Amino acid sequence: xxxxxxxxxxxxxxxxxxxxxxxxxxxxxxxxxxxxxxxxxxxxxxxxxxxxxxxxxxxxxxxxxxxxxxxxxxxxxxxxxxxxxxxxxxxxxxxxxxxxxxxxxxxxxxxxxxxxxxx
Length: 119
Known about the structure:
alpha/beta, globular, 8 strands, four-stranded mixed beta sheet
């Protein structure tokens, strides 16, 4: 079995696409409206991993609890500055863990927590 994608129900798909493209650095792979009132955007990283952003007028958006995503960054300090410049809510400021890994936690436009990790 191979992991394919994670899907996130969004409040505002355009805002979510802009966040994942411009701040996280994913590439918009596809955008579609398969049914009335529904939009789906697929974004990928350079290794084929995908995030599907889904907006459906008849479905509740993600409540922001119970799921966290992690992204590897080149430098945590640079990531911190990017988050500040773009007014991204920071949940936990960067810190160095016992194993030497540096991490911080931010929040996407849907309330989803994202851990940014410098290995």
